[in-house]
Write the structure tokens for this entry.
Amino acid sequence: MRDDLKEIILTEEQIQKRIVELGCELNNLYEDKLEDLIVVCILKGALMFTADLVRQIKRQVVFDFMDVSSYGGDTESSGSVRINKDLEEDIKGKHVLIVEDIVDTGLTLKKVIEILQTREPASIKVCTLLDKPNRRTEKHIIPDFNGFEIPDKFVVGYGLDFAEKYRNLPFIGVLKPEMYE
Ligand code: 5GP
């Protein structure tokens, strides 16, 4: 165990195994759909997850990226959401799969869904790696696909950062409190 981590809550093996299962579920959902499937990776946290997940999808997909920020260098949500980078693809009449790292209060996802709905896609589904349901303020925001439910702890690794660091860890862990105090 590294000095800066209190615990590892999901190992690399657990994450990769679950992604294979999620890939099967997504293949079942999208295999008969004729319209394009746009996979929307929410930067930067969902980068690793998206890269591994799309390799499990058997049909053609188009990638696009959105950069949305709700957190600064802190571990608590600011409560406001800013779109830093929008999609490049026209999603009208196409299936959209939003890929998120973690759904916490649900504010970010609510905002992203609202924006994308106005562009008249054929469907919008959400696949998140992690869900912290106990923290949800937007009660109606429920991901269609969820890798793992986790307790209310600030986690890092596998794309998730603290002040832009720790994203490259292949597993997910909890920082020692002294790392951000
Ligand atoms: P929400 O809008 O649902 O409160 O927050 C979603 C965003 O907050 C996530 O995409 C992620 O960037 C950040 N976030 C929420 N919980 C955590 C956490 O435990 N660790 C990290 N690194 N980021 C988190």
